[in-house]
Amino acid sequence: MSAGDTITFGPLYLADAEECAALERLLFPGDDPWSPAAFRAAVRAGHHYLAARDGARPVGYAGLALVGGPPEPEAEVHTIGVHPDVQRRGVGRRLLGGLLEQADEWGATVFLEVRTDNEPAQALYRETGFEVVGVRRGYYRPSGADAFTMRRARRVGSAR
């Protein structure tokens, strides 16, 4: 992989599904990684999915869904993944930032689950305004790993 300064950000496309699923298998081997069909279904459903690309190749992805409507919208981060070769270069932070910008446009409170042993991700989420609001025992399958449920409060005045 080349340096992080060559990475571009934009929408995730249906054609990216195979490579995103391969990246899922690399990143989450002990759990149930998303299939190409799952990525295609999320994009087709109109959820807000972003990609980080090194050239044409996806090296990261992130997805957000609006899951609750007015009067108090709620959004859920479906997934975030970054290729190990480009981790710690701000790629995940940029992808998360794009999701949170969309959530702010919706005026939504944002929820996500993160493994209780994934301290780097938890730190990123805390830095961007998330707080732990619960624990889901055995959430990740088949590993049985626990997850924290985290919440980022709705940004007042952010709905359009």
Structural commentary:
This protein is of the alpha+beta class and 160 residues long. It has one domain: Gcn5-related N-acetyltransferase (GNAT) (Aminopeptidase, 3-Layer(aba) Sandwich), CATH 3.40.630.30. Helices cover 28% and strands 33% of the residues. It contains four helices and seven strands. A seven-stranded mixed sheet has the order 1-2-3-4-5-7-6, with helices on both faces. A hairpin with a 5-residue loop joins strand 3 and strand 4. The longest helix is centred in the middle third of the chain and has 16 residues. The radius of gyration is 15 Å and the shape is globular. The relative contact order is 0.16. The model has no long low-confidence stretch (mean pLDDT 93).
Secondary-structure blueprint:
Blueprint: E1 7-11, H1 17-27, H2 36-44, E2 48-54, E3 57-68, E4 74-82, H3 91-106, E5 109-115, H4 119-127, E6 130-136, E7 147-152
Parallel strand pairs: 4-5
Antiparallel strand pairs: 1-2, 2-3, 3-4, 5-7, 6-7
Helix pairs in contact: 1-2
Q: Main β-sheet: number of strands, strand sense, barrel status?
A: 7 strands, mixed
For the record, what is the CATH homologous superfamily label?
Gcn5-related N-acetyltransferase (GNAT)
What's the end-to-end separation, in Å? Answer: 39 Å
Would you give the CATH topology? Aminopeptidase
Question: Shape from CA axes?
Answer: globular
The number of E-state strands comes to: 7
User: Number of folding domains?
Assistant: 1
Radius of gyration, taken over Cα atoms and rounded to an integer in Å: 15 Å
Percent of residues in helices: 25-40%
Looking across the biggest beta sheet, what order are the strands in? Answer: 1-2-3-4-5-7-6
Secondary-structure element pattern, one letter each:
EHHEEEHEHEE
